[in-house]
């Protein structure tokens, strides 16, 4: 399993750079991951990321955009504004979770 160092944290990642060990993530690392892809975190961003982080252990997979919208209560349009172009993929990356299924 490849590793990389981001903001002083050594983390395990897959071939696409998504984290593979849930417990290696913390919010400091999340902010560093967001900065790497050009996202400045706000309270609304953290709401989405915290939802993903809490939902993952219960569901066993990364939540889809639809789930974040319906269960997490964040409108899809807002997710596209906060995480432009590929919100599901970007949210998973920042949250330190696997890329969502069906996310090309």
From TrEMBL:
<dbReference type="GO" id="GO:0002143">
    <property type="term" value="P:tRNA wobble position uridine thiolation"/>
</dbReference>
<feature type="active site" description="Cysteine persulfide intermediate">
    <location>
        <position position="103"/>
    </location>
</feature>
<dbReference type="InterPro" id="IPR025526">
    <property type="entry name" value="DsrC-like_dom_sf"/>
</dbReference>
<dbReference type="GO" id="GO:0097163">
    <property type="term" value="F:sulfur carrier activity"/>
</dbReference>
<dbReference type="InterPro" id="IPR007453">
    <property type="entry name" value="DsrC/TusE"/>
</dbReference>
<dbReference type="InterPro" id="IPR042072">
    <property type="entry name" value="DsrC-like_C"/>
</dbReference>
<protein>
    <submittedName>
        <fullName>tRNA 2-thiouridine synthesizing protein E</fullName>
    </submittedName>
</protein>
<dbReference type="InterPro" id="IPR043163">
    <property type="entry name" value="DsrC-like_N"/>
</dbReference>
<comment type="similarity">
    <text>Belongs to the DsrC/TusE family.</text>
</comment>
<keyword id="KW-0963">Cytoplasm</keyword>
<dbReference type="GO" id="GO:0005737">
    <property type="term" value="C:cytoplasm"/>
</dbReference>
<dbReference type="Pfam" id="PF04358">
    <property type="entry name" value="DsrC"/>
</dbReference>
């Amino acid at each position: 399993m490849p590793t990389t160092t981001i903001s002083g944290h050594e983390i395990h990642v897959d071939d696409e750079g998504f984290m593979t060990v849930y417990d290696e993530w913390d919010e400091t690392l999340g902010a560093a991951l967001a900065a790497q892809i050009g996202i400045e975190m706000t309270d609304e961003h953290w709401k989405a990321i915290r939802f993903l982080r809490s939902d993952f252990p219960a569901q066993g997979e990364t939540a889809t955009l639809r789930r974040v919208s319906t269960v997490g209560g964040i409108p899809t349009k807002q997710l596209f504004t906060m995480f432009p172009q590929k919100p599901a993929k970007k949210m998973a990356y920042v949250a330190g979770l696997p890329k969502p299924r069906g996310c090309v």
